[in-house]
Specification:
This protein is α/β, with parallel strands linked by helices. Helix content is 42%, strand content 13%. The protein has one domain (27-179): 3-Layer(aba) Sandwich (Ribose 5-phosphate Isomerase B, Chain: A).
């Protein structure tokens, strides 16, 4: 059986996003522990998202730069990803100037699947397609109001949600990618 791509189904990006409703059991997700970390370029964005997460009822650990205490992305990302590895956090949200530096560092750690996101659609797809347990955002790219929408989309989307036709392929793909993971 030949697999069809998203484009071959005739579903445009808007149709795929529309097919991803919010989670039915949001209260269950609100018990989730989330770690956030930023470098000096993104402290304000991180603080806005952290406040938003706490208002939604999540437990948030902040391990990166804070106002008055700088920390480069290559030091902040490992602190957050180690909490994921140890099971002390279920998800990580990392912030730097573009999101790229944090993403590169986070993906060096075994068990971490980080995606740099720049839209609500990419945040949803990071979960639905890649089952990402971390996202990275760039303060030079994303406004705080958009970052909150992106984070909500990512948190409220399940792996393969809205992509039932591709669920088997997507689960197999994640398993194969995880098998390649040799980081510490």
């Amino acid at each position: 059986m030949k697999r069809r791509t998203f484009l071959q189904t005739g579903l445009g990006a808007a149709a795929v996003v529309a097919g991803l409703p919010r989670s039915a059991n949001a209260s269950e997700e609100r018990t989730m522990n989330i770690v956030v970390a930023a470098d000096p370029f993104a402290v304000d964005l991180k603080d806005a998202v952290k406040e938003h997460l706490e208002k939604r009822g999540f437990t948030v650990a902040d391990v990166g730069a804070v106002k008055g205490k700088d920390m480069p992305y290559y030091d902040a990302a490992p602190l957050a990803t180690k909490l994921l590895q140890e099971g002390k956090a279920e998800r990580a949200i990392l912030f730097c100037g573009t999101g790229a530096g944090m993403c590169i560092v986070a993906n060096k750690f075994k068990g971490v699947c980080a995606v740099c996101v720049e839209s609500v659609f990419s945040a949803k797809m990071a979960r639905a397609i890649n089952d990402a347990n971390a996202i990275t955002l760039g303060a030079m790219i994303v406004a705080p109001w958009m970052a909150k929408e992106m984070v909500d989309a990512w948190l409220d989307t399940k792996h393969t949600q809205g992509l039932d036709e591709f669920a088997g392929f997507l689960k197999d793909a994640c398993a194969r990618v995880n098998a390649l993971d040799t980081g510490k």
